[in-house]
Amino acid sequence: MAAGKRRGIHPNTGSGNSFMGNSFSGGNTRLSRLNFRPSSNQEDRGGTRPTTAPSSIGLIFVTMFLHVCKKSLLFDTRLKVAIYCGVIFTISLVADFVIMPRSYFSRSDNALNRYFVKWGWGWLLIVTIPWVVLTSHTLGCGRRTILLKHLARLVLATLAWLTWIKLFNYIENNFGRCVNTKEAQLQFKVKCLQAGKFWNGLDISGHSFILVYSSLILAEEGSSMIGWEGIKDLIMREEHCRVTPNETSFGPLRNLSDNDLEFLKKAHKICTPYLRALFVVMTMQQLLWDVMLVSTVLYYHIMIEKFLGGIAAVLTWYVTYQWWYKSPKNGLPPPGDGLFKYNEVKPQRDLTVARARRSTLNGTNNKFMGLPIRTGQDNPEKIVSTSRQSEIETP
C-alpha cells in the first residue's frame, strides 16, 4: 500500500486556472491561510495607569540633599541611644582624670552655649511646633482633634523637661553640704554661696539631659518625612481607581472620602516645600546639639552627673515615644499617624492581574505575549470553513 498523501489545510475555494478569480480572490485566499488574522478593530492593550510627572533638575538636587539629611537625622534611634550613653560614660570618665586642652568650647560664655544651649528648649519648640502642625494638618485632612493630639506630644515633652529640671535642682539643693563649715544656717545652697563658701552637691547635668532629649525628639518627629514624598503617587493612583470603571483600590487612601482626598491633595502640595525646609533646619539643629554634647562631655560636670542626665533623657524618650505613643489605646498618636498609613505601605499584588496570569498559565485564556489569539471561532462569518480530509491513495 502506498503512503498516504495529505492535502493542504486551506484548499483553494475557486478555480485556480482563472486569472480573474486569482486576481480578486488572491488576497482573501492568502488571509484564509493565516492561522492568526490581523483585525482592524483590535482593542488597544496599552497601559492605562497614570505615571509620575518628570522631575525637574532642581527637585532632583533637593531630593538628594534631603536624602543626606535623612541619613543624619533619621539615624537608627536605638543605635544613637547606645552611642550617646557610651560616649557620655567613657569620654566623661577619661575627662575626669585627664586635663583636656582648653579651647573656645571650654568657655562657659561661648556664643553657642549662651544663645543656643541655654535656650535649647525654645529653639526646639520653634522648629517642632510648625512641623507637627503642618504634618498633622495634612495627614488628618484638617481634623482639629488630630492636630491637638499631635501637639499634645510636645506639651507632654515640655512638662517632662520642667519636671526633670526641678528634680535636678531639688537633689542638688537638699542632698549637698557647704564645704569647710558646719553652721546649720549655711547648709542651704543659696545661704552657702552668699557667704562666699563652696557648695558640694550632686549637680546632675541639665545640659546633658536637654541635648540628648532634644536630639531624640527631633529624630522621632522627623520620622514623619519617611514616605512623605510618596503621598503624591498614592493620591494619583487613588484618583485613577475612583474614575476608572471596574477598578478596585487596595491603597491606603481607599477609606478616604472624596472631600478628604481633595483636601489631602491640596494640603500636601502646599505644605511639602515648607516641610522640606523645616527638615533641613531640624537636621542642622540636631548636628549642633551633638557638637555641644561633646563639648559638655569634655569640659563640664563630672561623669556621674552627665551620665545621670543622659539616662533621664533616654528613659523619658523610651517611655513616651517607644512605649506610650505606640500602644494601641494610649490616646496620643505617634508621629506620622493620621487618617491613613503612608510610611508602612507595602507593594501589593494586583488581584486581577494575578488571576489573569494564573488563568493564562492554566490555559483558560488563549493569549500570546499578553495579546489575545484570534481564532476561527471569533469571526465565523469572515472565514471560509473547510474540513480537513485525509485520503489514502492506493496504487
UniProtKB/TrEMBL annotation:
Membrane topology reported for the UniProt record: Multi-pass membrane protein
Region spans: Disordered: 1-22, 372-395
Biological process, per Gene Ontology: lipid droplet organization; lipid storage; phospholipid biosynthetic process
Low complexity bias locations: 12-22
Signal sequence coordinates: none
Matches recorded under Pfam families: FIT
Protein's UniProt keywords contain RNA-binding: no
Gene Ontology MF terms: coenzyme A diphosphatase activity
Name of this protein: FIT family protein
Localization per Swiss-Prot or TrEMBL: Endoplasmic reticulum membrane
TM stretches of this protein: 81-100, 120-139, 151-171, 307-325
Keywords: Endoplasmic reticulum, Hydrolase, Lipid metabolism, Membrane, Transmembrane, Transmembrane helix
A GO CC annotation given for this chain: endoplasmic reticulum membrane
InterPro entries associated with the record: FIT, FITM1/2
Compositional bias segments (type: Polar residues): 384-395
